[in-house]
Task: structure prediction
Amino acid sequence: MRSLNFDSKKPLLYLIATPIGNMQEVSPRTIETLQNVDLIACEDTRVSGKLLSLLGISKPLFSLREHNEVSASEEIIKKILSGTKVAYMSDAGYPCISDPGARLVKLALQNGVNVTAISGPNAALNALVASGLCEDHFYFHGFLDAKENVKLEELRKLATREETLIFYEAPHRIQKTLQAMFTILGNRKACIARELTKKHEEYIRGGLEELSKIDPETLKGEMVIIVEGSLGEIKPDVNNDEIIQMVKNLTSMGLSTKDAIKKVAEATNINKNYIYKIYHVN
Ligand code: SAM
Result:
């Protein structure tokens, strides 16, 4: 179905990308849109309220967050269909990108409401373009699962992808995630992009092995991890010390020795009895 957004009798839902740290990153078009709508739906009314007050905009706010996404989306679509002009913004960056909004967009389209996005900042793209690892193709994964076993499985599935990989991560999980990445993906080039657009913005470039050894106390704030894509088939080109270290990394993350050996065998294509032997001899 074709739909012209700005030359149509259909109502229009505005998705607004908001700053990821630096409040100067609000475009004149964003301000104009926010001034022209009747209602601003947002993930957290306190967070968006602060931004709007900085911009000198006062509008009714309506909360649409992960926990009420279904009912709030229905409510918002009803309001749009009865003539209310609505914009939606999440706490930072683009709605729908590791943030609520996708359900609202689908419901809008199902109900004959057009959807447009007002451009703005996004953490994944800032990190990617400045990382030095930007190639023609990339894959955005967002957050890995918090459970270590599921995380390792997710990484194993990603291990053969040739595109540059993009992850979001929280500071309390960064070290374990980097260790898991090193174990499963090997010593690929990577970059931690921290506190983007803020005063303490930092890019840490290096191999996954080196990055996984950084003191997590120095990795605070918000961060994106960019990892080089697979350079071809994963070959068992690791030496015995590296294999043993991989098993140790996994057992220190809570896996049993048996499970850790199994994971390392899968990741490296090395026979698990061989890994068992070298691990237990040492
Ligand atoms: N919707 C957002 C976007 O478009 O980028 C992402 C929201 S997601 C809930 C929050 C995660 O994005 C953070 O945990 C972090 O991984 C990443 N992020 C957000 N702001 C960031 C910043 N200023 N610097 C680095 N990473 C950031």
Remarks:
- The chain has a mean pLDDT of 94.
- The radius of gyration is 23 Å.
